[in-house]
């Protein structure tokens, strides 16, 4: 496989610890690399200006096509723990039509794996000792396979990602929308009953194309996610994995995390936290964002307990 670097630039940034006054100056290397199919992928490697570490935190975002640059600063606490940070752009994130046509589970998983392989070989010269995955929402769906396929992945954090197949999660969310009498994204799209949902599933199965859309994504995309289940892989993993979800999450049903808690209560490497008053974006019922608090009170203590 031939890989071509299109260009590489280094941009100095000053990033801040969440909730702290201490600043950390990072050098950000921007990689634009063509994969084996000639598609250009972009990722950013942040490190202290005195050089790379031997540990890497990888930030994997959710389902939108906005730039990962808006999350520069996420994970910055990890720098004090000796990690560099890799931020991954999605393929065609700045071309909405091409993004819609190409986006699917297999595509994202392949692109993430390509970036990990490239960075390990070309930036770290195969001297990397640890990869730490930090994923939220849709990004969490890739963690089990990435951890299973990469021996360097030593730990992972998964935010607002469920344990059921996406199809079952939608069934639970639809029932909640009906029982709690609120207009969620399913009822807003015209899905008013379980029969409507099953009909939509049938349309997706029969025509998994990139030209048909539902809930902002193509049928191709939904066909790749709706019935995917990583349970067999999760059973085989022994690295520490922290799951966190808000109890008021209306995008991912908390029941799907409760299911994982019960099914894998024998696996001591898995830890689960359900925070009652938070929604999908970790905002409380008063509109206050609590992500920094979650980092301080749950994430950092969990990390320290696993070292």
Molecular structure report:
- It is a single chain.
- This protein is an alpha/beta fold and 307 residues long.
- It has 2 domains: 4-163 and 229-305, 3-Layer(aba) Sandwich (Rossmann fold), CATH 3.40.50.1820; 167-223, no CATH class.
- The chain has 10 helices and 12 strands.
- The protein has helices at 96-102, 105-123, 143-149, 166-179, 185-188, 194-206, 219-225, 231-236, 255-263, 291-305; strands at 4-16, 23-34, 40-48, 55-60, 72-75, 83-88, 130-136, 153-159, 213-214, 217-218, 241-246, 270-275.
- The strands form 2 sheets. The chain has a 9-stranded mixed sheet with strand order 1-2-3-6-4-7-8-11-12, with helices on both faces. The protein has a two-stranded antiparallel sheet with strand order 9-10.
- Strand 9 and strand 10 (217-218) form a beta hairpin.
- The longest helix has 19 residues, at 105-123.
- Mean pLDDT is 91; it is low at 1-21.
